[in-house]
Every structure is written in structure tokens, then in C-alpha cells.
């Protein structure tokens, strides 16, 4: 009888539990860009589905349309996304316009500490206003702009000898921006295995953010600053400083003398294509692509190696990466917060890195074995130590498009001088901040 | 009463409704019919236009939760004194003028040739009109490949005739060539449209006029300039009007091909307007921009339509 009672209670408990589970189960939609790490996240999220009973759907938008599509979605109060892995620059608008749920209370209640994540990523992906303890996202995907090159070409004796003869030094990973240009110019138009190859593929895209991300990879190592005094929006003399002018002239020279013909509008995809098709000796791109590049059967493995964006006056890399936020218009915020809680777990973060995502969790980054866990892991850590991001203001889109125009006009369309371009940029940005009431 | 569709419909009308209608004047009945259309026109066209005019005097941004401020004519002043916008206008004017010029020239020539009776006439007509049946996005994409300096067929064809290295010039990347590259693609795509309109014009000319001219011993050249051209001119002007309006708002094809670049060389006003309105979200400013473009197109089109009517009256 006792056994029967026990069995009945157990059966009832299981039935109640399943009913409760069924009642709470939600279909969550996570929105992000369509790229390699997104596929890794789909794989990772299967574990969440099993544990929570929720199901996950994904909306991945190609990068060139990602900002347009997602910002329109947020601005219209759309309910497509419950969770959004949005670009770091959106955090200001997300917070001020009420698109993102503020996560402080949730973090406190669940014991999620931001000190468990790398400082640079918390600052860049989670906080608004910058540097305050107001969190609107959990660091999801650390990223920076880095470089990769044909290790097999660099190792060839004939190429090494030719380089030594041309430059007087050994061919190796560049230690400065000027060395980087010298190597790229050396490879430009060179015949390798009967094929004409070119120096490097860099970002020149006009429509979204490409050329800005490329040029800032030169500006930051030259010591570029957005303001004379942080928070003052006092840009004249900083944005158009002599160092900034020199960096911009450098990038234009790079574009004109060391890139394949026709790369007037190239970004992530074109950079990857140029490298994988054996056209270029080096290429810039986001660390997020490096696991896929390393795994490529034709140009990966022994043929590829990676290096951090070289310094010039200072060390500096352009920040990429994103935080994960709960969309304020979602009807499933509780389930979405459950996902965030699960994702913040150090074990999940370790698995995220194993699958090809870039964890920003200190437990992963500070692990003694991390640097050797992938050929680019050490470079990633180094890059994240000196990253700088674009404006994260609510008006970031206006600021970005103004910079896209000024840079493309100068670098690709060859109009005016670097000084003119940066002076005009200061004028454009001043107008934006005046409209914003910040100047 | 005779059994006709009208009488059948009338007898099918419920008597209550019929009584009500019977008491209405012709004018009232006309309003009942026209009313819904006028309402739709007001709701879909006129109200948004008035709303846009109102927004054009504000600093409204559709993506921001902040109070709207009246800024008077500041948006208009900024636009009209912005040298970058004048460059966009120049790019648009260049694109408009040359696309219309080439499309009219080639379209009319093709129509004139196709109008001659020859074997395979219908097949050639079908082949020629194929480009305009394609989506502009598709056309933009495949011309992008054709213009590719390393693998593009266009560069190889030019190289074949000129002896230049195919990768020595970039149609889409050069400031000098990019404006012409979009003119070439638009001409390739839309010349058949002009050709079809011209063909309709040519086929509307009665044969007896040419026969009379033959009797008067008018030369072929004389017939062409005194019969063909004047009689096709209204059709040609209509084609120019259609292409002009279409190309003034050209967006998809050019975005696919150049994205407005290099720099802002091919950034037509429609592309610039879209950036201001839906990327920068400067709604008030973009509204003023749209109103300026609207007034420009409306003004030019009105003058043109008057000229077209005069030609038709001759």
C-alpha cells in the first residue's frame, strides 16, 4: 500500500511538473548577425532548450543589413526579437530610447557579477552612460579587428630572400603599422606559383561601417582620440590632430599601393574571399572569423597564422563584438532573462569558446590553458587589452554615416586631403551634437 | 419593362435603398461614387504630404523619444546651402540627362529597325525587351560581376578592343568611370522600354501618308524628318517623361552597383534621402529634403506636360 501511495505521489509530481513546464515553456527568438559565431550559438543553445524546456528560434541577418533591419525593428517597437545580440555602438540608443531592459536588478537577484567579465567588454558592451554601473547587456561575444596572413608564403626561402634584399630585414609578423605596409607592398603584384598576388585586403566598404572600422584600425595605433577631454564633445584638435591626419594618409597609401584592384567597396566577406582564393598575402578581419579561417582546408591549418593589429605610436585595435540584451517590447522577458542567466554560467561560457564563440568571461580568459587553446587566442587577449570603440551615443548612426562619407571621399574617391576630410568630419559631428543638445 | 441588365440590377436593389436613392440628386449620387476614392486619396496621398510639410519645420527624429521642436526654415536653409547635397543633385542630373539621351537615341533606332519587316522580327523584339523584365537588384548584381576588374567580362571586352590591361581600370571604383558605369547599366536595362513606346508610335503612322509622300517624290530622308519624327515625337516625349520620373527616383540599381560610391560620386538624391531618413533618422530634415525634391519634380513635370500637350495639338 505504501509503495502504491509513493508511486501515485511520484506520478502526480511528474505530471504536475510536466504541466508546469508546458505552461511556462516559451518559444524565444534570438536575433543576431548571420556569421560563423551565430551557428556556434545555435549549437550551444540546444543545451538551454533541454534544461529549460523553452525552445529557441533564431533570426540571423546578413551583416550589411543587420543594423538597418534591427534598428528599424527596435524603433518600431517590434516583437520579433526577445533577445538581441546588438552591436556595441547601439547601447546608448538602446538604453536611452527604452529598447533594452535594464539588467541591474536581475543581475543582483541572480548573483551575476559584472566583475566576472573582462573589464573592456563590460565597459563597451554593457554600460550606459559609459563607465557607470548601469547594465543593459551581458557581454556575449568579445571581438576586435585583427590580421591573418599566409604563413606558408612567409616561410618560403625565395620570398624571404627577396624580402631581405628589398627591405634589409627578415620577413616576419609586423611589429608596427609601417612594417605592415612595407610587407603588403612587397607582396603587391608578386608572382607566386604562377599567380599574381596582392598585399592585403582591407576594409573600404561605403554603405554600413566598413571603411570606418578599417581606418580606425590605423587611427587608434597613431593615438587617435574622439575628444580632447572625455565627455566634453570637444573634438577640434583631437579628431583632426596631426597624428590622425598621418594615420589617414597612411591608410590611403595602403589602399592605393597594397590592395587588389577593384577592392573599392570591400568588407568582411570580400576580405575573407580575397584570402581564401589566394589573392592576398594578408587580410584584416574580425577575430570572430578566425576559427573558421583556421579550419579552412585550403588556406587554413599550417598555411595561416594570425597577429594583433600592429601598434605605431601606441597599441590600439578597433573593437568589435556585442552584448546580449533583453528587448523591452518582448512578451517573454522572464524566459529571455532565464537565457541570460544560463549564458552567464562559466561552464556554458567555456563551451561557448570551444564551439567558436569568443567568451568574455574571466573564468575562460584567465584559464592558464587559454592562450594555447587556439593559434589566435593569445592575439585575442592582447587585442582586447588595447581596444577602442566608436561613439556609442544614441545618435551613433549619424556620426557613423558622416565618417563613412568623409573617409570614403578621401581614401577611395581621392577627393581633397586627409586634413580636409577630418576637418569636415569635426564639422559634421559638431552639428550632430548641437542637434542633440550636447554642445 | 424591357428585360436588360440595368433593369435587372434596378429590380434587385432593395426597395428601402431604392427609395432613398430616388430622393437624391445626380450630384449627390456622384459624390457617393467618388467619395471613397477621394477619401483614399486624402488618406494615402494628401494627408502624408501635409504631415511631411509639417514635419519639415521640426527637428523630429522618428527613432527618438524626445519632444519635437519647431525649427522654422532651418532644415530648408541647411539643405539648400549644403554643398554636398548640390553634388548629389549634380550626380542625379548627370545620370538623368545621359540615360535619357542614350535611351532615346538607341531606343528610337532599334524601334525604327524593328519596324521594318524582316524574318525573325518578333524573335528579335522579344530578345531586346528581355533586360527590362529582370529585377533591378539582379541586374545590379550581375553587372557588378561584369565590371569586376580581375574577372569581369566587360573589362575583358574593353581590353580586347583597346589593348589595355583588363585590371588596369575599375568601372565602379573610379571617380571618372563610376557615373558612366551606372548610365551604361540603366541604358542597357531600360532602352527596350523606350523602344516599345517608339514602336507603338511608328506603327500608329498610317501607310497612306508615306504613299502620298512617295507620290510627291519626297526622299526617304525628307519622309523621315517630315512624317516619322513629328508623328513619333509625342510618344517619344511620353517615354522621356516616364524615364525622367523613374530615374529621378532611381535607387535599387545604383545601390546594388556602387552603393553611392566611390566616395559620394554616384550618390543620387534618392540614395542620400534614404540615408538621411532611414539610416540617420533625421526625419524633420529628410522631410524638408523630400519636399524640395517633390517641388522640383512636380515643377519640371508640369512644364514638360504643357510642352507635350502643345506638341500633341500641332
Provide the spatial order of strands within the biggest beta sheet of chain A: 2-1-3-11-4
Number of helices of chain B: 14
Average pLDDT, all residues of chain A: 92
Q: What characteristic shape of chain A results from the CA principal axes?
A: globular
Strand coverage percent of chain A: 5-15%
Question: Uncertain regions of chain B: pLDDT < 50 for 5+ in a row?
Answer: none
CATH homology-level superfamily of the largest domain in chain A: Periplasmic binding protein-like II
Kindly give the count of domains of chain A: 2
Q: In CATH terms, what is the fold-level topology of the largest domain in chain A?
A: D-Maltodextrin-Binding Protein, domain 2
Total tally of structural domains of chain B: 2
Provide the CATH top-level class of the largest domain in chain B. Mainly Alpha
Mass-distribution shape of chain B: flat
Q: Do you know the CATH architecture of the largest domain in chain B?
A: Orthogonal Bundle
Largest sheet of chain A: 5 strands, mixed
Which percent band covers the strand fraction of chain B? under 5%
Give a topology summary.
The complex is a heterodimer of chains A (439) and B (314).
Chain A lengths: L1 H23 L2 E7 L2 H17 L2 E7 L1 H13 L7 E5 L3 H6 L7 H7 L8 H7 L12 E4 L3 E6 H5 L1 H11 L9 H11 L2 E3 L2 E7 L8 H10 L22 H17 L9 H9 L3 E7 L3 H6 L8 E5 L8 E2 L3 E5 L6 H11 L2 H10 L6 H4 L11 H8 L2 E2 L7 H16 L6 H18 L4
Parallel strand pairs in A: 1-2, 1-3, 7-8, 10-12
Antiparallel strand pairs in A: 3-11, 4-11, 5-8, 5-9, 6-7
Helix pairs in contact in A: 2-15, 9-11, 10-11, 10-18, 18-19
Chain B lengths: L4 H8 L2 H8 L3 H30 L18 H7 L2 H33 L5 H9 L6 H11 L6 H10 L15 H26 L3 H9 L4 H29 L3 H6 L11 H11 L3 H31 L1
Helix pairs in contact in B: 3-14, 5-9, 5-11, 9-11, 11-14, 13-14
